[in-house]
Specification:
single chain, Rossmann fold, about 550 residues, about 35% helix
């Protein structure tokens, strides 16, 4: 691909030309689908860019974008970035004070905002002297303007987006991504998972997040594929959208796949005895086939997939957190592939992902994508060390933060802060975050993420957070877990909702799940929590809140 093609401006132009007749974006409103072809999306993006230019906005100016997932979000993004301005996508779950900090730090001169959020700006507008224009997304999309799109030639190394990290560890930083960063990732991701104009994506993750924006929006439209947005994250809406759109690909976080799998197995468990017997017999055949490298579930469970609205799915993609291997294996046995990937906002974001044509390897996050190199530095005696990444997808740096940039960008490589290893087949494996590791007095490293992934496989545990704790008398460090019960499952099974019963059940489930772990990794203390943990918009627990005491980790404690 030529250097000039590595811009979102080129993507927008291709959308309007090569894929002019393709329906690329759609959403159901008032019972009917609203659809945009490539030509319509490109035309509307040009019209909005012309309006922004008529207001005095120029090449390089920051324009914030705040709205729920919908086709118009993507069109506004193409209008901003495709004409040389810099988009500042904002998480719609943030509070006005958090919007204010992002707008101040980015120096945004305008914001395109959905009407649902416009009122939030009345309280902060006076504190943002650089913010000159607040534009309604609904109004600008409904209006017909004669303003000409600006004649701006975009360079691949121009700043395309300024993305503020979701803040699992504290105050967000502005990640600077160029057109080259993003488009190199779009091209490589498209190649390794073979996206074509025949594909139909269902979008459930927030568009302000790099994973969904790059892999769930830009990559599909780059290939002329269709993206359907769900009305809500209600499972019924998701399944309905999958059926209506004949979905072939969906990107999601592990939590959604865990809930989907648990829901499927609960549904099977509620069937008559003869149905359960047939299911178990078929599953036995599938497991036998695995010994001969045969994926029998594709044929044997076709009826189950069709009934669940999953009959047209080519594969799912999981990212943003670790997917428990048992969940990936469970889906695969039902004839549904989950391609697990790894990435960071700082890498635009995809670093590695499983390949469709390769056998499943659920304990890994796949080999690096084309043009990306991953290396392990400072490994311990087991080969686990920090992962560093090189490639055109690596960010320009953190905006207005040279100190933080210097900490992670060294000699052209991004030091990820993630620990892991690379196996003999070139697959990347993630152990956990270096800052979260628990080191025992015997020098053993314990990664909380591994234990958390094991605990949430219990049908009775909805969420888990693992920490290191120190025995006040001996100074010995041990593992403790804070667990949130799945109250929906408990209610279905008639489990009594009192602290004594729940504490006993949680202790039992933790012991059972820890049976799969080495002794030094096993949880020694269990804490019961009744409320969900505070999370980012991609459903990652904000671990720093509990480390700093900004949020109480639990209500009740019961030692094991």
């Amino acid at each position: 691909m030529s250097d000039t093609a590595l811009t979102i401006q080129a993507l927008k132009e291709q959308l309007g030309d090569a894929f002019a007749e393709n329906v690329v974006l759609r959403i159901k409103r008032d019972g009917e689908y609203v659809e945009f072809t490539g030509a319509e999306a490109a035309h509307r993006a040009d019209a909005l860019a012309g309006l922004l230019a008529s207001l005095g906005l120029q090449h390089g100016d920051r324009v914030a974008l705040l709205a729920a997932n919908q086709p118009e979000w993507g069109i506004a993004y193409l209008a901003i970035v495709g004409h040389g301005m810099t988009a500042v996508p904002i998480d719609r779950l943030l509070k006005p004070g958090e919007y204010q900090r992002i707008l101040e730090d980015s120096g945004a001169r305008a914001i395109v905002v959905s009407d649902a959020f416009r009122d939030d700006f009345h309280s902060i507008a006076g504190s943002l002297p650089e913010l000159k224009h607040v534009l309604s997304l609904e109004e600008v999309m409904a209006s017909e303007t004669d303003a000409a799109a600006p004649e701006s030639q975009v360079n691949p190394d121009d700043l395309a987006v300024l993305i503020y990290t979701s803040g699992t560890t504290g105050r967000p930083k502005g990640v600077m991504l160029s057109h080259r960063n993003i488009m190199s990732n779009v091209v490589a991701a498209s190649q390794v998972i073979s996206i074509s104009s025949d594909d139909s994506f269902v979008s459930v993750l927030p568009l302000h997040h790099t994973f969904e924006c790059t892999a769930g929006f830009l990559a599909p439209v780059f290939n002329g594929a269709m993206v359907s947005y769900v009305g809500s994250l209600n499972s019924r809406d998701i399944v309905e959208t999958m059926k209506d759109s004949k979905a072939t690909i969906m990107l999601a976080v592990p939590l959604l796949y865990e809930k989907m799998y648990q829901g499927i197995m609960r549904k099977v468990g509620s069937q008559p005895a003869v149905t359960r017997t047939v299911f178990n017999l078929l599953m036995g055949v599938v497991k036998l086939g695995e010994k001969f490298n045969k994926r029998m579930g594709t044929a044997l469970f076709r009826s189950l997939r069709d009934k669940g609205g999953l009959g047209t799915i080519r594969f799912f993609v999981s990212g943003a957190a670790a997917l428990p291997p048992e969940v990936a294996e469970g889906f695969d046995r039902l004839g549904l592939r989950i391609l697990q990937g790894y990435g960071l906002t700082e890498t635009s974001p995809v670093v590695s992902v499983h390949r469709v044509e390769q056998p499943p390897k659920p304990d890994s996050v796949g080999p690096p994508i084309n043009g990306v190199e991953v290396e392990v530095v400072n490994p311990d005696d087991t080969g686990v060390g920090e992962l560093i990444v090189r490639g055109e997808n690596v960010m320009m740096g953190y905006y207005n933060n040279p100190e933080a940039t210097a900490e992670v960008l060294k000699d052209g490589a991004l030091y990820t802060g993630d620990s892991g290893w690379i196996d003999d087949e070139g697959h990347v494996h993630i152990a956990g975050r270096l800052k979260n590791v628990i080191v025992t007095r015997a020098g053993k490293n314990i990664y909380p993420e591994e234990i958390e992934g094991e605990l949430v496989l219990s049908p009775y545990i909805a969420e888990a957070l693992v920490f290191g704790a120190e025995n006040a008398d001996t100074g010995e460090e041990y593992v403790r877990a804070v667990v949130v019960p799945d109250f929906e499952v408990l209610e279905e099974e008639g489990v009594q909702d009192d602290d004594e019963t729940l504490t006993a059940l949680m202790n039992h489930e933790v012991r059972e799940r820890c049976g799969n772990l080495a002794d030094y990794k096993r949880v020694r203390e269990v804490e019961l929590r009744r409320e969900e943990f505070s999370k980012t918009s991609t459903r990652k627990i904000k671990r720093f809140l509990f480390k700093t005491g900004q949020e109480s980790p639990a209500e009740d404690t019961a030692g094991q």
